[in-house]
C-alpha cells in the first residue's frame, strides 16, 4: 500500500483507463507541474483538489487521505434488472442515480452524524408480517417507519430502489414513479437486503447475484406468502377474482404469475394473458370494492408519486438550522423549494458595530 497521498493518487491513475497526466491535471484545475509535484510528495494537495480527485476517479476521499476506507461510507444494495435471455442482473441507471444518492447521504450525515448501530430486523418474512400487521400493503411505508424503524425516502431522481444503513438507521430510497405495485415489490426487495445483512463491502459479482436472488425470494414470500397462495383456488379464477387478488396483495399480474410458477402451480391461460398486460388495465376494467375514496386506484398511484422524506429527518434539519449548526440548502432540496422561501428560525447574524463605536474603541 502506498504510504502517502501522492502514491495513492498514482494508484488511482494506474487503475483508471489510460489518460495523459496533463489532461488529468487540467480536469483538476491544476497546472501539470503542480500536479506532478503533488504526486511525488513535493507539494500538498488542497482539500478542494482531493475532493475533485475522489469525484473524478469515483474513489473514497477518506482512503486517499488516510489509506484506510471511510468507516462511515455508505454501502448500497439495489434492486437490479434481470435479463432472462442471458441470466444476468444489471443496474444500468446507477451512474445517473449517483448525484441524488449523494444528496440523500448528505442529508443523513448532517442530521445524524452516522453514530450507533442499526437494530436487528426479523430475517423471516412471516415474522415481519406479524410486526407489520394485517393489511399492511396500503400503509406499507408508514408501518415500516413506525413499527420497524426503517426510513423510506421517495424521490423521482433515481431509476431503481436502493437501501443502506447509516449509523443506527435502516434506510431505503425508492423511485417516485406512481407505479404502486412495483413500489411495493421494491420496498419488500430492499427490506430483504436490510434484514438479511446484504450490505457488505467488496462483495464479489457472484455474491451480489446471490443477494439479489435472496432479496427477490424474500419479497415474494413477504407479499405472496406460500401458505396463502396455496390455499387459494387458482384454477377457476375469473378476471374479477384476479383483479381482487392483485388489489389485496398489492402486486402486479406478472408477479402473481411468476409466483405461481415458482410454487409449481400452473397459471391458467387467463392469468398468463393478463401477466402480459398492464395491471392498471385489469383493475380499471374488473376491480370493484367497498372503499372510502371515489377513485382508490388513482389514489394509490398518486401516493406512489409523492416526493417523501421521513418526518424525523426533516425535523432534525429544522432544529440544526435553528441552532446554526448547518445551512438550509439540504432541507430546501428535500422539500424542493427555494432556500430563500424556507420559514425556519435560523439564528440572526451579529449586528455590525456602528462606525463611531469602532472609532471610540480604537481611541480615534
Could you give the topology of this structure?
Blueprint: H1 5-15, H2 21-27, H3 32-39, H4 47-56, H5 61-66, E1 77-78, E2 81-83, E3 88-90, H6 94-112, H7 125-132, H8 140-147, E4 150-155, E5 162-166, E6 169-175, H9 180-195, H10 205-223, H11 226-230, H12 239-249, H13 253-262, H14 269-275, H15 279-286, H16 296-303, H17 311-322, H18 329-335, H19 355-361
Parallel strand pairs: 4-6
Antiparallel strand pairs: 1-5, 2-3, 5-6
Question: Could you explain the architecture of this structure?
Answer:
Helix content is 51%, strand content 7%. The protein has a four-stranded mixed β-sheet, with helices on both faces. Strands 2-3 form a two-stranded antiparallel sheet. The protein is of the alpha+beta class and 364 residues long. The protein contains 19 helices and six strands. The protein is globular.
Structure at a glance:
This protein is an alpha+beta fold.
Order of helices and strands: HHHHHEEEHHHEEEHHHHHHHHHHH
- Tally the beta strands: 6
Which term fits the overall shape? globular
Task: Report mean pLDDT, rounded to a whole number.
Answer: 87
User: Low-confidence spans: pLDDT under 50, at least 5 residues?
Assistant: none
CA-CA gap between termini: 61 Å
Strand adjacency order, main sheet: 1-5-6-4
Report the sheet with the most strands, covering strand number, pairing sense and barrel closure.
Answer: 4 strands, mixed
Radius of gyration (CA) equals 26 Å
Estimate what percentage of residues fall within beta strands: 5-15%
Helical content band: 40-55%
Individual helix count: 19
The secondary structure category is: alpha+beta
Amino acid at each position: 500500500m502506498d504510504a502517502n497521498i501522492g502514491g495513492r493518487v498514482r494508484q488511482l491513475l494506474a487503475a483508471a483507463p489510460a489518460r495523459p497526466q496533463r489532461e488529468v491535471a487540467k480536469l483538476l484545475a491544476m497546472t501539470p507541474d503542480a500536479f506532478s509535484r503533488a504526486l511525488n510528495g513535493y507539494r500538498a494537495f488542497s482539500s478542494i483538489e482531493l475532493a475533485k480527485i475522489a469525484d473524478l476517479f469515483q474513489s473514497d476521499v477518506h482512503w486517499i487521505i488516510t489509506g484506510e476506507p471511510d468507516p462511515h461510507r455508505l454501502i448500497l444494495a439495489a434492486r437490479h434488472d434481470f435479463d432472462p435471455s442471458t441470466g444476468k442482473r444489471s443496474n444500468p441507471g446507477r451512474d445517473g442515480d449517483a448525484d441524488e444518492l449523494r444528496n440523500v447521504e448528505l442529508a443523513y450525515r448532517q442530521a445524524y452524524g452516522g453514530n450507533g448501530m442499526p437494530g436487528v430486523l426479523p430475517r423471516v418474512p412471516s415474522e415481519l408480517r406479524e410486526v407489520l400487521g394485517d393489511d399492511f400493503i396500503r400503509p406499507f411505508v408508514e408501518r415500516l417507519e413506525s413499527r420497524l424503524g426503517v426510513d423510506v425516502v421517495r424521490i423521482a431522481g433515481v431509476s431503481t430502489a436502493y437501501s443502506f444503513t447509516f449509523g443506527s438507521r435502516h434506510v431505503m430510497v425508492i423511485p417516485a414513479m406512481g407505479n404502486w405495485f412495483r413500489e411495493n415489490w421494491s420496498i419488500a426487495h430492499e427490506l430483504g437486503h436490510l434484514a438479511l445483512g446484504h450490505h457488505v463491502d467488496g462483495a464479489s459479482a457472484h455474491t451480489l447475484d446471490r443477494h439479489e436472488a435472496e432479496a427477490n425470494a424474500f419479497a415474494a414470500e413477504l407479499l405472496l406468502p406460500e401458505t396463502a397462495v396455496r390455499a387459494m383456488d387458482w384454477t377457476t379464477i375469473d378476471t374479477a377474482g384476479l383483479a381482487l387478488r392483485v388489489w389485496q396483495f398489492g402486486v402486479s399480474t406478472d408477479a402473481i404469475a411468476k409466483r405461481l410458477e415458482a410454487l409449481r402451480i400452473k397459471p391458467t391461460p387467463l392469468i398468463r394473458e393478463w401477466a402480459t398486460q398492464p395491471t392498471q388495465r385489469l383493475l380499471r376494467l374488473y376491480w370493484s370494492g367497498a372503499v372510502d375514496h371515489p377513485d382508490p386506484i388513482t389514489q394509490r398511484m398518486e401516493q406512489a408519486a409523492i416526493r417523501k422524506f421521513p418526518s424525523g429527518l426533516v425535523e432534525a434539519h429544522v432544529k440544526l438550522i435553528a441552532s446554526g449548526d448547518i445551512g438550509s440548502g439540504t432541507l430546501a432540496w428535500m422539500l424542493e423549494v427555494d432556500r430563500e422561501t424556507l420559514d425556519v428560525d435560523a439564528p440572526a447574524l451579529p449586528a455590525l458595530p456602528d462606525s463611531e463605536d469602532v472609532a471610540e474603541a480604537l481611541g480615534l
